[in-house]
Amino acid sequence: MKNKQQNFDDLLPEYDFDYSKAKTNRFAQKSVLHIELDADIAQIFKTSEAVNHALRSILQALPPMQITT
C-alpha cells in the first residue's frame, strides 16, 4: 500500500482546533527582534548594546510603568 501525504489545507471539518487554550512552548528559545534604524541614528548607535543603554537611560527618567501580561 502506498503512503499518501495529506495536504494540511484539506483537513476535515471535525478537526476544528481551539487555539484559545494554547500555551506557549516553554522549551522554545526566545525570539530575536530585528529592528531597522534610520541611517542617521545608526551612525550614532553602532551596536545593540548602545541602543539598549540609551533606551534604559530613557526608561529611568520616566515614571514607573505597570506592565501587565
Short description:
This protein has 69 residues and is mainly alpha-helical. 29% of the residues lie in helices and 0% in strands. The longest helix has 14 residues, at 48-61.
Overview of this structure, please?
With about 70 residues, the chain is mainly alpha-helical. It has helices at about 40-45, 50-60. The longest helix has 14 residues, at about 50-60. The model has no long low-confidence stretch (mean pLDDT about 80).
Unreliable spans: none
Compute the number of strand runs: 0
| Shape assignment | elongated
The level of helicity is: 25-40%
Instruction: Report the total helices.
Output: 2
Largest sheet: none
Structural class: mainly alpha
Q: What integer is the average pLDDT?
A: 80
| Separation, N- and C-terminal Cα atoms | 51 Å
Q: Order of helices and strands, N to C?
A: HH
Rounded radius of gyration (Å): 23 Å
Beta-strand residue percentage: under 5%
Question: Any descriptors?
Answer:
69 residues, elongated, mainly alpha, 2 helices, 29% helix
Write the topology of this structure.
Layout lengths: L38 H6 L3 H14 L8
